[in-house]
Design the sequence.
């Protein structure tokens, strides 16, 4: 059979021509050739080296859709090769704030990977599989209806034909997974709420930017570590939940007096797990079906929060009735009662229980449900039983260990001669971390020794509180 490679002089002439072309290619000369010549060279190269080429256009199959593989390739190459590629393009991300580097036109990138299916020995022998990425941007004549602009952008991925299964089945999957992970890391987290009158939209969203972290949360260090461990275990237990047949969600009940850090802890959790937050205002929901609609429209990797659950609705049956008769109402309770009386909300306890463990609450997966309350004793036991609210976390008055965290945050001091006196008084006085934090805020920016001044203020406040509490017999 006739074959170019075995045809003597002609073959060697072709070989020489190809080698010359490769040399030119290496020198970057081919990139400078006119478009048609450049394409001809690449086709010849594919044929000569038995290469396969996959084209990844920017535009998806539907004219109005973006091709996810194209954006994944853009993200992957930008992240993996921004320190190696010689020509890059700088732009901003969707928020317009962070700089994103992408590979420039005419830049060729060689990536390597080891397919998982290969035996270890084989891998050693064969080495890594090489693939070549290239970005193309062609100017198109005006008037083409199928194009968004006058440029046709696409990537080509070229590799040896022998590695087709590995590249198609594994490498492209790896590119998609890596880019998803990068996007997840860089994404802007959102705070959603149902109470801001977002028109037809169920949820109104704003960017979630809360600086709280577990490092700055003042509470017993062992308790804090246990919560962090629990959260981490939860976030890595997808397979386990699937194995035991449970929806991948976890309920947290945070309870304690005002100003002890319940809302702050929710922000810490969201930052720790990199989750979005859905803050549900129950009094703004008219019916159980509306609550269901809201829940179905939440996404995974999120925390669904209902603050002050005891005041949001009259959920505690007989105890709720008793509360109605109290003459003096706390402001939160009063507000909730007023909205209830106006007939604004008809969400019931059973509606709420369905929200926690109903079938539809499992949609999406990986969700925390967090309730907060100042009065845990007023809640219906059915609402907070284990299995619904898996973790009950009490946030209490400020103790010395918690104070030390606050002193470090606010004053940048880890030890001070006045600490001993603070320790003594904190053991005798009930004060919230919010009140301690208030005393530790520097009041005079020009003061020479801010720490001593603030600690003296705190001691004075503690002393006054001690006297008040001993008069009232607290
Ligand atoms: N444990 C804490 N660690 C660090 N800061 C705290 C802590 N508790 C309270 N603070 C500070 O006090 C402020 C009020 O705290 P937060 O809103 O979290 O209290 P809360 O328990 O949610 O109160 P409420 O029951 O009234 O809703 C916070 O902005 C934070 O600065
Ligand atoms: Mg709060």
Sequence:
């Amino acid at each position: 059979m006739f074959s170019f490679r075995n045809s003597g002089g002609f073959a060697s002439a072709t070989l020489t021509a190809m080698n010359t072309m490769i040399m030119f290619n290496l020198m970057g000369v081919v990139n400078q050739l006119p478009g048609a010549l450049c394409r001809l060279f690449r086709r010849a190269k594919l044929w000569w080296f038995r290469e396969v080429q996959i084209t990844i256009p920017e535009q998806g199959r539907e004219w109005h859709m973006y091709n996810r593989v194209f954006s994944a390739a853009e993200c992957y190459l930008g992240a993996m090769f921004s320190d190696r590629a010689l020509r890059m393009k700088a732009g901003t991300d969707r928020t317009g704030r962070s700089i994103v580097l992408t590979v420039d036109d005419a830049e060729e990138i060689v990536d390597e990977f080891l397919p998982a299916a290969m035996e270890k020995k084989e891998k050693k022998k064969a080495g890594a599989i090489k693939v070549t990425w290239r970005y193309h941007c062609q100017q198109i004549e005006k008037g083409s209806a199928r194009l968004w602009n006058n440029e046709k952008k696409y990537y080509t991925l070229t590799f040896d034909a022998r590695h087709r299964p590995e590249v198609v089945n594994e490498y492209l999957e790896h590119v998609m997974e890596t880019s998803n992970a990068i996007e997840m890391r860089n994404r802007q987290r959102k705070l959603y709420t149902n109470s801001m009158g977002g028109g037809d939209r169920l949820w109104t969203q704003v960017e979630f930017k809360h600086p709280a972290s577990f490092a700055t949360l003042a509470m017993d260090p062992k308790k804090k570590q246990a919560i962090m461990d629990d959260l981490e275990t939860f976030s890595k237990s997808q397979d386990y939940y699937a194995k035991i047949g449970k929806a991948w969600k976890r309920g947290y009940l945070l309870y304690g007096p005002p100003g002890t850090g319940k809302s702050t802890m929710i922000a810490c959790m969201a930052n720790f797990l990199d989750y979005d937050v859905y803050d549900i205002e129950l009094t703004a929901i008219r019916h159980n079906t509306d609550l269901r609609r809201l829940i179905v429209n939440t996404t995974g990797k999120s925390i669904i929060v209902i603050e002050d659950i005891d005041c949001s609705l009259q959920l505690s049956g007989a105890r709720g009735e008793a509360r109605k008769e109290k003459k003096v109402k706390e402001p939160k309770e009063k507000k909730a009662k007023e909205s209830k009386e106006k007939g604004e909300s008809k969400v019931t306890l059973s509606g709420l229980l369905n929200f926690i463990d109903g079938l539809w609450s499992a949609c999406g997966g990986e969700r925390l449900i967090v309730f907060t309350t100042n009065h845990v004793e007023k809640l219906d036991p059915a609402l907070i039983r284990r299995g619904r609210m898996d973790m009950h976390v009490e946030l209490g008055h400020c103790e010395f260990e918690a104070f030390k965290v606050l002193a470090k945050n606010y004053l940048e001091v880890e030890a001070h001669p006045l600490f001993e006196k603070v320790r003594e008084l904190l053991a005798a006085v009930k004060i919230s971390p919010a009140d301690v934090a208030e005393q530790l805020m520097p009041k005079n920016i020009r003061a020479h020794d801010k720490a001593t001044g603030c600690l003296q203020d705190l001691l004075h406040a503690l002393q006054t509180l001690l006297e008040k509490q001993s008069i009232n017999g607290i």
